[in-house]
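Supplementary Methods. Inverse-folding protocol.

Structures were first reduced to a discrete structure-token string of length 465. This string, shown here, constituted the complete conditioning input.
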């Protein structure tokens, strides 16, 4: 009610009650006016408080919409909107917890996708990319983030994979295939396609890729190994059985011929023994049953001993072995394993170097923490196509020459495993008709990485017998 009307009404009541006494009437009017003013002030204060509360609610909702779900609204307990504020806070807490759960799930998914060994791509029913991990981006050679929203043929660019995805989305059945990105490269990718329900209806698809190049190579090597072992065992066994039967059936065989047959049987038996020894050595190396020692090694003495041990074989085919190393070169490693490596490399050079050739056996320090051994020959060399496979078991560049010299075809495979056991590295350079050079870099286990305290023989001194 307006203040004037309230005061007039109060005055009228006062005149009726108090009669003709105007003083008391105006006192009553004043009291009524004061009460009205106080009531009006309280009403306006309540309106301002409600407006502030509503403004806080709007501001908090705006902050939630902006992603700040940790914001809360707090009102006085006697505020009529306090119950609404409490309800909104409970909704915000639930939304915040749900959002945190979604963020954790997203982080886990990102970590899984980033650390997968293979590629992972999700397509919608129209075969547009909706998710792709880093490995798939690298495999299909697309920049990070550029594949999302693009069609499969813009990303994969392989009709075989696109066809498998199409069939999976149409039939709802999984597909698998092997894909070679570049026929000129030795790379083989196994692709698995699985249908997945699309939110819009029908099927999308998941593409998972895995590099199976090494696996297929190992399968081929395993198959070749079985075939090669069978062949390597069959040849000497056939010879032994044939000559043994001849000796058993021949009653009047001349002594000279019988002696020659016995000699051939003995040589083939020794060949079998060498083959079995090499296979056992490879088995121990592959199963890590050998442990490399760390003893002082006189590098010059080691090279001289290897050259002396193979000197007879080299001279028999008119080859010269030269030893070259700096004076005072020493290291800490396993001398027996180093000797095994050098014996196999020099023996390999003897097998593949024509008469009159030369073999250089050398060593030098490679930085402060390693020693580099070298075996260089003037042999037939290795074609470029054969270089990647020379360390495979039973792989031979010239099979006839290797068998004639008594080789088992396992020497370089043993070298590779021994070098890995020593935590070293091996590399080779070769060209047909120009010889081959093998380098073996072996870490020096000496405390200071320098020469050991063992007396060192100078390079100019002859090797000890």
């Amino acid at each position: 009610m307006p203040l004037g009307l309230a005061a007039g009404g109060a005055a009228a009541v006062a005149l009726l009650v108090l009669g003709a006494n105007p003083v008391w009437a105006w006192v009553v009017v004043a009291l009524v006016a004061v009460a009205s003013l106080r009531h009006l002030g309280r009403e306006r204060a309540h309106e301002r408080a409600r407006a502030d509360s509503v403004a806080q609610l709007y501001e908090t909702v705006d902050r939630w919409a902006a992603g700040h779900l940790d914001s809360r609204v707090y009102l006085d307990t006697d505020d009529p909107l306090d119950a609404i504020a409490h309800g909104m806070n409970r909704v915000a807490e639930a939304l915040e917890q749900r959002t945190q759960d979604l963020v954790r799930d997203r982080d886990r998914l990102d970590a899984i996708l980033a650390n997968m060994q293979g590629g992972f791509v999700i397509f919608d029913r129209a075969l547009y990319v909706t998710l792709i991990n880093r490995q798939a981006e690298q495999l299909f050679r697309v920049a990070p983030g550029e594949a999302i929203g693009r069609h499969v043929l813009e990303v994969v660019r392989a009709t075989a994979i696109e066809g498998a995805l199409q069939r999976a989305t149409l039939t709802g059945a999984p597909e698998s295939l092997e894909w070679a990105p570049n026929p000129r490269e030795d790379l083989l990718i196994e692709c698995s396609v699985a249908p997945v329900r699309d939110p819009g209806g029908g099927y999308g698809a998941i593409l998972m890729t895995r590099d199976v190049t090494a696996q297929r190579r190992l399968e081929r090597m395993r198959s070749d190994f079985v075939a090669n072992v069978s062949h390597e065992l069959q040849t000497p066994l056939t010879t032994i059985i044939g000559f043994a039967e001849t000796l058993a059936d021949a009653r009047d065989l001349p002594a000279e011929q019988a002696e020659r047959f016995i000699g051939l049987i003995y040589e083939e038996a020794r060949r079998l023994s060498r083959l079995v020894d090499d296979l056992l050595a490879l088995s121990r190396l592959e199963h890590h049953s050998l442990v490399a020692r760390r003893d002082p090694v006189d590098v010059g003495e080691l090279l001289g001993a290897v050259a002396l041990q193979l000197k007879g074989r080299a001279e028999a085919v008119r080859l010269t072995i030269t030893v070259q190393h700096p004076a005072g070169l020493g290291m800490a490693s396993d001398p027996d394993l180093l000797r095994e490596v050098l014996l196999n490399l020099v023996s390999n050079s003897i097998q593949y170097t024509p008469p009159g050739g030369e073999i250089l056996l050398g060593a030098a320090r490679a930085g402060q923490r390693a020693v580099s051994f070298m075996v260089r020959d003037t042999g037939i060399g290795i074609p470029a196509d054969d270089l990647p496979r020379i360390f495979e078991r039973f792989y031979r560049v010239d099979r006839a020459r290797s068998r004639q010299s008594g080789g088992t075809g396992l020497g370089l495979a043993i070298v590779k495993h021994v070098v890995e056991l020593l935590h070293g590295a091996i590399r080779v350079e070769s060209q047909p008709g120009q010889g081959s050079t093998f380098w073996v870099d072996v870490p020096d286990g000496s405390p200071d990485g320098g020469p050991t305290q063992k007396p060192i023989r100078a390079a100019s001194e002859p090797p000890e017998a």
